[in-house]
Amino acid sequence: MPRPAAILMFLGLAVAMLAFLIACTSESEDSTTDPAPPAAAEVAPKPEPTPTALPTPSLSLPITEDTLTAPRIMGEGINEWINSEELILAELQAENKVVLIDFWTYTCINCIRTLPYLKQWHDKYADRGLVIIGVHTPEFEFEKSLDNVKEAVEGFEIKYPVVQDNNYWTWNVFNNRYWPAKYLIDKDGYVRYSHFGEGKYDETEQAIRLLLEEADQAVADISDDENPVRLVAPNALSSRNPDGLTRELYAGTHRNYSALRSGIRAPYVLNEEYYKRANTDTEYTDPGDWQNHHIYLQGLWHNGEESLRHARMTEDFEDYMALSFNAVDVNVVLRTQSETPYTVQIRMDGEPLSSEDAGNDIWFDDEGRSFITVDEPRLYGLVRLDGFESHELTLSSNSDEFEVFAFTFGAYVLHPEV
């Protein structure tokens, strides 16, 4: 059952938004309030990543004789190719190639967790006729930067071709809706298998092998039992709301205002001030009583379309962002817009993180306080626990460049290296 406090907060936000919309659509000529955000129907839909840590439900399209002809991966929306010259599906078919299209974006933790499998399949089957093409379709504006994508490709040690799909051209012609998503195309140009989200790695590899064999490629001498095993914490599966795995949390107004208008799902930020005016600096007061699945603010913040940015310089980390979570690990997407890095203090349950609970990007000062240094726009690892646990987390920075886009949460008790 949802907690009463969360229900009351949600209702209060809904009432506030309704009043806001009425005020902003009045015909008063001397109103100084900015126009309301456009109605939900006018908001361009943004694709949703699949749940970040649990194995996805059965979203695979099984091998068939022919399913549908593969769309082109060329078009006006294609920006740049990385690790390869331009590839054309018709030419790959003429060479008897099997093609695996992987839709991804470099800050998506779901996508990152699939990379070890993709890299392994590339190493095993590239010389047997498999061509993997990573179609990088960005979730956030900064992910459209070629330099950022190149740096990510290099950092993840991706050797197969990657193409930028900044305008969603390839995404749309495939009618795709998920990160990550895989489409397997046979030698004749038919999509014979697809899978959305994480998981089904053994099944996907068997589909690869079958289509390679159909293309007269021998694969029997290649082992198919090397896929890493990942175990999900059992209690993460027991309940999705309110005590289950924390959902992905978005900081920007696009998703929050859309969620509030929908009346179906609760918004991510649970400060009423957030919904009074978009794209402005606002002083926030933490309402307390932090609930799972939500973000809480204290201090001066700017609520932009994709992010929340700390809106002033401070001296003692007095402004903060807080949340209560249920997970094994916690990650956050952050950005810096200058060449000067900034630090963010991370505290769990009111204390610095321990070295045992620290994520990949945590470091400690001489006093034992836990921090991350933000020096590029990417996903940062904050917390990595031994099991599925419930805790409270605060992030604070003295910098006015501290900018938060999204939090993601994991439930794997065995953590893969990527």
Task: Please tell me about this protein's structure.
The protein has 418 residues and is of the alpha+beta class. It has seven helices and 19 strands. It has helices at residues 4-24, 89-94, 109-125, 146-155, 169-173, 201-214, 253-262; strands at 60-61, 68-69, 81-82, 98-104, 130-136, 162-164, 181-185, 190-196, 249-250, 281-284, 296-303, 308-310, 320-335, 342-348, 351-352, 363-364, 370-374, 378-396, 403-410.
Count of domain modules: 2
Structural class: alpha+beta
Low-confidence stretches: 18-45, 50-59
The arrangement of helices and strands along the chain is HEEEHEHEHEHEEHEHEEEEEEEEEE
The level of helicity is 10-25%
Largest sheet: 11 strands, antiparallel
The total count of strands amounts to 19
Radius of gyration: 23 Å
Fourth-level CATH superfamily of the largest domain: Galactose-binding domain-like
CATH topology value of the largest domain: Jelly Rolls
- The CATH architecture of the largest domain can be given as Sandwich
In the CATH scheme, the class of the largest domain would be: Mainly Beta
Write the layout of secondary structure elements.
Blueprint: H1 4-24, E1 60-61, E2 68-69, E3 81-82, H2 89-94, E4 98-104, H3 109-125, E5 130-136, H4 146-155, E6 162-164, H5 169-173, E7 181-185, E8 190-196, H6 201-214, E9 249-250, H7 253-262, E10 281-284, E11 296-303, E12 308-310, E13 320-335, E14 342-348, E15 351-352, E16 363-364, E17 370-374, E18 378-396, E19 403-410
Parallel strand pairs: 4-5, 5-6
Antiparallel strand pairs: 1-8, 2-8, 3-6, 4-7, 7-8, 9-19, 10-11, 11-12, 11-13, 12-19, 13-18, 13-19, 14-15, 14-17, 14-18, 16-17
